[in-house]
Amino acid sequence: HTCSCVCLKIALWVENRTTHGMSGTKEHKAWKAIHARCGNPATRSYPLYGGRGIFVDPRWDNFEQFYADMGRAPSVSHSIERKDNDGPYSPENCVWATKTEQANNRRSNRLVNVGGTVSSLADCCRRLDFPYAVALRRLHFGWSDERTFSEPIKRNKVAI
Hints:
Elements lengths: L4 H13 L8 H14 L23 H8 L7 E5 L11 E5 H5 L7 E4 L2 E4 H8 L3 H9 L4 H6 L10
Antiparallel strand pairs: 1-2, 3-4
């Protein structure tokens, strides 16, 4: 088969520019996003990340290394999460997690200790099938964590 000079130039240009062939994938977008929020002060989320000292491990400056460490996201609903919210984006501190899993790791979460298990209020309510609004109101009025979830909800009277 014969290629014209233009076709050959285009083919060689594409070949020389393609490094990993994963541009546009979920993993590549995540890699680009963590670099933007940690390293670009013009990015809207920079103050919450780079602005407070969160950085990307230098070994992840290379996408191929990031992908080797993290692998493919388990599903479309997974995104990158730092286990320690104050720690860096690094192989030791990052996992693929769902939105629900990530919501349990927010700095703003209210943590409760029920039966010796510490978890976010929302997660505890889900686990115990307990109304979140009732638990929140009881805690607001000074109830202990244990009492909040152990006392029955009074349906006939105004419950706090």
